[in-house]
Design brief:
7-stranded antiparallel sheet, mainly beta, 6-stranded mixed barrel, globular, Cathepsin D, subunit A, domain 1
Length: 377
């Protein structure tokens, strides 16, 4: 399996890290822009990142959002013999699901689909699954099979097989989602993949880590069961969770040039690999964008590409530590201009998405219910 990497620490050869490389492909936004469809799509299916974190969906129904900027996905396999799928490793949700042969939605027709009849280890569950998106839903049913993630073969893993999918999934490179949040969030009571990894003794430590490369389409990786020191520099700052549903932490403030521009007095933030931007309350995001020199254009927060080098750093203060983002980190350049990486979420909750994680290697520790952050190497 060329997509599975096993790294053994020199100090303890018995301790191996199982890693899944992540590919940074074209986003749905980039594909739609190339086809001249982005403005129509954006108006028809407005981006609503906070739908994903609506607590009313924490039991029974799982919410997700139509993030058109998601770029990172990895490969897993399901069944015997294995059927391969590209999935987003999403710390903001808890279910694993992929398209099935029973789905005829446009989103399924241009993605790989799981065929239960071709797997000798598949067992049907019979329960239904519905995952609500900002612009539609994924509807399907649950089944059990062997799910291979990197070098780990997770036995009897429950997962969703879609029979209908939201329109925006048609433009995403990934086939499905592998959720890595807490089991209390999981729709239909399905046990998350990482929980089964822990229960089946597949990981040496009850944690996983995410490294998102900034410089190329290669190098990004999810590591299960340990921490690869090659992916960070300096020390790790350990931050206790303020809630054990998502990977939620407390941020003390956000500053620019030493002045508080947002989150004055503290705020709650979720470290989320399944959201591309840094998202916050409308007033806070508007203030940050104004301070860094962004302006609104056709519903997008834009900056002059010529000014990126002169734009200020934005610093998140967490647990007494400073996590600073230079303009090169929070500005996305494309053929259509330069976009701010700070997005309006319409809620008091913040999301520290890929814009943040590319700068700070992130460790998700289930054993001690904490997040570790260190400067990405």
């Amino acid at each position: 399996m060329k997509w599975a990497i096993v790294v053994c620490a020199m100090v303890a050869l018995s301790e191996c890290l199982v890693q899944v490389p992540l590919e940074k492909g074209k986003t749905a936004r980039e594909i739609l822009e190339e086809q001249g469809l982005w403005e129509e799509y954006r108006l028809k299916f407005p981006y609503n990142p906070m739908v994903k974190f609506d607590n009313s969906f924490a039991v029974g129904t799982q919410s997700m959002t139509n993030d058109a900027d998601l770029a990172y996905f990895g490969i897993i396999s399901i069944g015997t013999p294995p059927q391969s799928f590209k999935v987003v490793f999403d710390t903001g949700s808890s279910n694993l699901w992929v398209p099935s042969v029973y789905c005829s939605s446009p989103a399924c027709n241009n993605h790989d689909k799981f065929n239960p009849s071709l797997s000798s280890t598949y067992r049907q569950n019979g329960a239904s699954l519905r995952i609500q998106y900002g612009t539609g839903s994924m509807i399907g049913f649950l089944g059990y099979d062997t799910v291979t993630v990197g070098g780990f073969a997770v036995q009897n893993q429950i997962f969703g097989l879609s029979t209908s999918e939201a329109p925006f999934m048609q433009y995403m490179r990934a086939d499905g989602i592998l959720g890595l949040a807490y089991p209390r969030l999981s729709a239909s009571g399905a046990t998350p993949v990482f929980d089964n990894m822990m229960k089946q003794g597949l990981v040496s430590q009850d944690l996983f880590s995410v490294y998102l490369s900034s410089n190329s389409n290669r190098g990004s990786v999810v590591t299960f069961g340990g921490i690869d020191p090659n992916h960070y520099s300096g020390s790790i700052s350990w931050i206790p969770l303020s809630s054990e549903l998502y990977w939620q932490i407390t941020v003390d403030s956000v500053t620019v040039n030493g002045q508080v521009v947002a989150c004055n007095g503290g705020c709650q933030a979720i470290v989320d690999t399944g959201t591309s931007l840094i998202v916050g309350p409308q007033s806070s995001i508007s203030n940050i964008n104004q301070v860094v020199g962004a302006y609104s254009q056709n519903g997008n927060d834009m900056v002059s590409c010529n000014n990126i080098g002169q734009m200020p750093d934005v610093t998140f203060h967490i647990q007494g530590q400073e996590f600073t983002l230079p303009s090169s980190a929070y500005i996305r350049q494309s053929y259509y201009g330069c976009h701010s990486g700070f997005g309006n979420g319409g809620s008091s909750l913040w999301i520290l998405g890929d814009v943040f994680i590319r700068q700070y290697f992130s460790i998700f520790d289930r054993g001690q219910n904490r997040v570790g952050l260190a400067r990405a190497a």
